[in-house]
Amino acid sequence: MEMGRNLIEIKNLTKRFGDVTVVNNISLDIKENEFVTLLGPSGCGKTTTLRMIGGFEEPDEGQIFFEGKLLNPIPAYKRNINTVFQRYALFTHMNVFENIAFGLRIKKIPKNEIEKRVKRMLKLVDLEGFEERYVDSLSGGQQQRVAIARALVNEPKVLLLDEPLGALDLKLRKEMQIELLDMQRSVGITFIYVTHDQEEALTMSDTIVVMNNGVIQQVGTPEDIYNEPINRFVADFIGESNIIEAIMPEDCKVAFDNVVLDCVDKGFAPNEPVDIVIRPEDIRIVTNPDEGMIKGTVRSVVFKGVHYEMIIESDAGREYMVHRTIAFPVGSYVGMNVQPFDIQVMKRGDPL
Amino acid sequence: MSKALKRIYMGIIYLFLYAPIIVLIVFSFNKSKSRGQWGGFTLDWYAELFQSRQIREALYFTLLIAVLSTIISTIVGTIAALGINNMGKFSRTVILNINNLPVLNPDIVTGVALMTLFTSLKVELGFVTMLISHIVFSIPYVILSVLPKLRQMNKHIAEAAMDLGATPSYALRKVIIPEIFPGIISGALMAFTLSIDDFVISFFTAGTSVTNLSILIYSMAKRGIKPTINALSTLMFVTVLILMLIINKKSGKGEEILL
Amino acid sequence: MKKRVRILAYPYVVWMAIFIVVPLFLVLIYSLTSGDIHDINSLQFSFESYQKVAEPLYLKVIGDSFLLAFISTVICLILGYPVAMIIANANPKYRSLLLMLFLVPIWMNFLLRTYAWMSILSPNGIINRFLAFLGLPRLEIMPGNVAVLLGMVYNFLPFMVLPIYTVLSKIDKQVLEASSDLGGNRVVTFTRIILPLSIPGVVSGITMVFLPAVSTFVISGLLGGGKTPLIGDLIEQQFLFSRNWHFGSALSIILMIMILISMAIMSRIDKNGQEEGGKAG
């Protein structure tokens, strides 16, 4: 995947609704051909950010640049950016063909050209032969495809997608994730994708922007975000994790619950309070408790398909979530080991 | 209920509904002027009907008022509904409650209230006051049938149109109006029938210079029964029936339109 | 965007203020004053008109109006509910025809429908001719309350049937199946499931019949012959003939208030009914 120069630059963007600051001074660069996902819980400001890029909300402060030009004063209908809306917002009084041709007709593109381009789009979204159908008669997944085709046919440089898969059932959602990704690769344009589903974000994105309370928490590749969450919020929101309050007596050491473990992080002040993250799959279990760094009793075992999810209560009374492919019987006393590089140390933030 | 019982019951109800209409129609062809007595077939009453200037004038005013008030109230009501739909909850509730007053108030109260207004403003009652009154009671129905369509519509649909390059006015003409068109049409139909059918409000706001069919029928009926009214009823009934059948055939959804 | 679209409603807000709010306000003012209505300076605050309403003569008129409207509403409900049920359960092929047949008469002018009954019921009308032909005694119901009631039922029955039909036709058939599956016989299914679920339709039917019935002056004028004046006749008289607008306004205000109270009661019943319907469903 070639990613070039910055296509969109967001500088100190702020949006308030009444007294509530929905987007609080965010800055972000988005490159050409990049698949960027704005991820966060509902109300975190991700949709508002997207709507400001699309031109449906006016920022209270800050600028959005598109190819170096200030986008703020340009109305939505003059922006070379298209949107796939939540619940699609298809025109129910038009058939599939007319829905897709809508933007082209406004641009006064010749009829045969419109026909050609709509046909090509229908092929791309796998809806050939659906031209005459009215959108009300389509399934959710088909409506979704029409919405995508309707936006892509205008050959925008950026496609904005606002939780486009939210209304679909799980299986269809998984299929559409792959298809969307294929489409993005084949048309070669920037996708800015909004979702609250962390798994979706991990699957699809080049870059994930985690947001909370209108503030960007972390920007990075899916691997970065998952493996090295910058704070408690990100660690908790992305995947399942054991988050533990600890202190760092010295570089590469963390202390909590009367144990001191090795880690790889440096640069904190001596005895600085920190949060550490240990992913459930990074905890190994040994049957002999004495061989473990932390000893504990298995409290519950749940089969999750690929693995077992166990809750193990340490002698200090802390509960650890552990994912292993082998189950240990409830009540057994075991040891737990963690590799130094599997301990992610984060600055202590606000308690969740 | 057994099937036979149901049929008998429905038969009686339909007889109850249609007997007066059938009587009206039959006696419109009755030579004898006295009701209840058959004096032979005649079309005299129809001839008289068409010769009567009074009736022609009343028909003219009825239709003119209905057409004008339908057009005006449909346009104003649709525009108002677009605005109301974008209002905050509080102002929307206040406006809709006031808007509902002519719907919920007895016609006679609306009628005398408007009459009071016009008289207090020293406006002479006549064509204009009657037209205004018809618009006053029609707009609320237009709003009530357009607003649900606007609320049902995906709230991002205008944005979607603009996202695809439509200017706000293009989006309004080509997307929003077509999306809510069924609501506009049913509002207009309602405004038209209410106007044609209205008696009470017209009665109080028309004054003496203008007469519509309802007022004419009322004054004729008060003076006694005249077979010309029977002829008029027959024609109106047949017109409505034919219109209904056409609509029913065309749409195949007579039920919905009737409702 | 939203703010700009909002402006579209402002002209209508002004219109409503002038033609809906101000007229009712004027009626309220007239009801609370006495003096020459054409001379604002002569108007004086007064309860005279309301005191007049409280006179036994006029209280009886109001009582009669509500009684007749109430009786006609009950008759419409009793006659209309089965009709709505039969149409709702009819073979879908005939359902819309049955419904249309039921609705065609209301597309005929209200006055003509009332007029039609005049020619049937009047002293020299068809029924009496027929009875005379058979040598039977004359039927003297018109002018009179029975004729007025008949006119009300005839005119307003469809307004009872329509809302009930709409609600009944929307009841999920599976709910009825569930009831019989759980051991409910037809009576139980009706009283515990269908009836509670149809309460909203019944309530709006009652409102749609009661409202025009209580305020009518056409039906009583044509079929009642002035024997039992109703509140509508009284208002008409005050505004058009007696020219006592103060009294007419007071009557209008009272009519409005009583209707508002009845509607508040009905909407309370509707709420309770829906809750019970919810429980039953």
What is shown here, in short?
By secondary structure, chain A is an alpha+beta fold.
Radius of gyration of chain C: 23 Å
Instruction: Return residue spans of chain A where pLDDT drops below 50 for at least 5 consecutive residues.
Output: none
CATH superfamily of chain C: MetI-like
Mean pLDDT score of chain A: 91
**Computed Rg of chain A:** 24 Å
**Helix content, binned percent of chain C:** over 70%
Q: List the quaternary state of the chains.
A: heterotrimer
Total count of strands of chain A: 20
CATH C-level of chain C: Mainly Alpha
Categorize the overall geometry of chain C. globular
Question: What structural category arises from helix and sheet content of chain C?
Answer: mainly alpha
* Strand arrangement across the biggest beta sheet of chain A: 6-7-8-3-9-10
CATH topology of chain C: MetI-like fold
Q: Under the CATH scheme, which architecture of chain C would be assigned?
A: Orthogonal Bundle
Largest interface: B-C, 81 and 85 residues
Question: How would you portray this structure in words?
Answer:
The complex is a heterotrimer of chains A (352), B (259) and C (281). Chain A is an alpha+beta fold. Helix content of chain A is 24%, strand content 34%. Chain A has helices spanning 46-54, 96-106, 111-124, 140-152, 170-187, 198-204, 222-227, 232-237; strands at 6-17, 20-31, 35-39, 61-66, 69-70, 81-84, 158-162, 190-195, 207-212, 215-220, 242-248, 253-256, 259-262, 272-278, 284-286, 294-303, 308-314, 319-324, 333-337, 344-347. With 259 residues, chain B is an all-alpha fold. Chain B has a domain at 53-224: MetI-like (MetI-like fold, Orthogonal Bundle). Chain B is 80% helix and 0% strand. Chain B has helices at 3-27, 44-51, 53-85, 89-104, 107-120, 127-152, 157-163, 168-197, 200-205, 213-223, 227-251, 254-258. Chain B starts with a helix and ends with a helix. Chain C has a two-stranded antiparallel sheet. Chains B and C meet through α1, α3, α4, α5 and α6 of B and α1, α2, α4, α5 and α6 of C.
